């Protein structure tokens, strides 16, 4: 906080008599200036160290993502050579988008949408795949569409449409300080790449990271929806329900 002091520069002419109060004020300003300089140097050093550590962690994350993808490729090839089937790992992350407004919605689905933080049309949130969430999604299926976002989708959403909830206010994520000051001490998340990693891998601090993000306000999809009255998995085709990996194509049109 000391680096933000606004210190006045009081100049005294040579040979002029200086009142006692002015002397005290000059001494106080000199002490504050010294404290401010020390705090500024300390903050610059801490920021440089934090940026360096964030850079190293980002490189580690990239290696982790690449290793995971390569492992899946190897397992698929091994299963194919052995004449077996490869069962894809179950998804841990969901992205849910509301596709219906507020008209003619009964109280129970309306309450569930409120609990999922989907209060407006085209709002989107990240959710962890577990039994309670899946039960809640069953209640609101005709009003939402959801699927399993890729790393590219998660990254583009946070960088392009990421807003933070700070003191109940919607603040644009313009730098890592906003993330660090709100999540750093409790969760160790100090930057955008830390946040992306925590969301995509559904880490131990997923709940805090997800609640820190304001629900995404997406645009209407380019080319429009197909038919909101019918489900995506129905024979004639529609929009609501589980899209699995094809949610990435929809988000790309809405982002």
Model description:
The protein is α+β, with helices and mostly antiparallel strands and 255 residues long. It has helices at 20-81, 107-115, 131-139, 151-161, 176-187, 192-200, 206-212, 247-254; strands spanning 93-98, 123-128, 144-147, 163-166, 169-172, 216-217, 241-244. It has a 5-stranded mixed β-sheet with strand order 6-2-1-3-7, with no helix packed on it. It has a two-stranded antiparallel sheet with strand order 4-5. Strand 4 and strand 5 (169-172) form a beta hairpin. It is elongated and about 95 Å long. It starts with 19 loop residues before the first helix and ends with a helix. The mean pLDDT is 90.
The number of helices is 8
For the record, give the distance between the C-alpha atoms at the N and C termini, rounded to a whole number. Answer: 38 Å
Low-confidence stretches: none
Determine the fraction of residues in helical runs and give it as a percent range.
40-55%
